[in-house]
Amino acid sequence: MSTVRRPDHRSAHRPARAAHANGLRHVLTHLITPLLMCIGMGLAYLGAFAHPAPHHLPVAVVGSGRSAQLLAQSINDKAGGDLEVRTVSDRAAAVDRLKHQDIFGAYVIPAEGAQGAKGAKGAADAVDASGAKGAPGGAGRSGAAGASSGSSGSTTSRGSAGRDGVGGAARPGKPVPELLVATAGSDTSATVVQKVFTPIAAQQGAPLKVTDVAPTAEDDPTGQGVFFLLVAISIGSYASVAVIGGAGAVLPLRLRTALAIGTSFVVGLIGTAFAGPVFHLVDHGLGGLWGMAWLYSAGVLLIGTGLHTFLKRWTTLGVMTLFVMLNFTSSGGIFRPEMQNGFFAALHSFWNGAGFVEGVRSHVYFGGYGLAGHVWTLVGWLVAGLVVIGVAALAEKRRRTAEAEAAAHAVAVAAAAVAATVPEPARIGRSAGGAEPGGGHGSAHAATALEEEREEELEEAVGV
């Protein structure tokens, strides 16, 4: 009597289960990168933008009399460090300081509105009621749109009456308080300053006249187009890093460096086209803007290309940390450092995104004042990129030398083993017939693994 063995279905499914487990492990490993990006972006953006508040925001009271000094001192006392109020002798000096970005607002007391110590105290009480500390919340809600704030008996006009900004109707011939701002420096800072001084004008029984001494381009009313231009140039730059590092990994580093520099020229031209003929973010100075865009993009591409030698598939996360998470948040494009916490305010002083944004503002709107310092910031990052490339070149040279030595040692060991175990006639026949069967299996496997790694890097770059 014979028995028929049933097929073991569990054995048939084992290879499929093993393949699924390996695939799941592969996916979970690669999910680490986007999850880290999520955490990093949340910490960076919410840490920088969630709770904007002035920290020693410099403003001025225009006047040389006792009433101006008392008003400035009273506002300083009530602000508790949020504002840094100083006095300026006359309107012309205030305009000059605004255009040098030494201050971000100047309150001009009307000639008939000097009320002495009593009037200064009442104005300071108005500041306490409206709140220098309360202004940032309003700026955060309305900042980009440049909202106006009003209180009883006072109106502001930067959002409603245009750039000359006479708000409300005053009696003919009666002087009214005037607030000088420079929206090209920061629309959100100008909004905060306006929220602070509007109640002071109301306390003096007059509407507030708001004058913009450094307006932005007509097609960029908030002045934040430069920030979004930075975003476009940054994405074009760091996404190109993944392509040059992944698809171009077989190329010598000098060719990858040349590709990086050439790509930065193209990215700079694209950014200049966006800023000028496409969206009209700026109406002059396109040559200087292209130069800064090229410097910025070249620094990003060179640093990223050099880092790829060490980070490999983690390069995308590395460049996003440097040029998105820490860069956009400290650039000053949305909130200036005086409106941020100490960490991002400190980064603003030397990070490359801040160098580009402030450099473009200085070049286009402020007559080039301070431009040299911002250009040197961009040059410094370009030099840093060249240094990283140099270090990467040394590392790759040592790696190639070590691999060549290891390969030579392996060949020598294999030859010695063959010589010790294979008879002489067989060795002669093998030499005449060519290489051993399967001799190229190891190199083919290594090439396949390298190609898979490059494809993974490119997939991550496209996903980002």
TL;DR?
The protein is mainly alpha-helical. The chain has 15 helices and five strands. The relative contact order is 0.10.
What general form does the structure show? elongated
Kindly report how far apart the N and C termini lie: 67 Å
Please give the domain count.
2
Mean pLDDT: 82
**Main sheet: which strands, in order across?**
2-1-3-4-5
Rg measurement, Å:
32 Å
**Helical coverage, percent range:** 55-70%
Structural class: mainly alpha
Secondary structure tally: strands: 5
Number of helices: 15
Which residue ranges are poorly predicted, with pLDDT under 50 across at least 5 consecutive positions?
A: 113-119, 134-170, 431-442
Biggest sheet overview: 5 strands, mixed
Strand content is under 5%
Order of helices and strands: HEHEHEHHEHEHHHHHHHHH
GO cellular component, one term: membrane
Organism: Streptomyces glebosus
Membrane topology: Multi-pass membrane protein
Biased composition (Acidic residues): 450-464
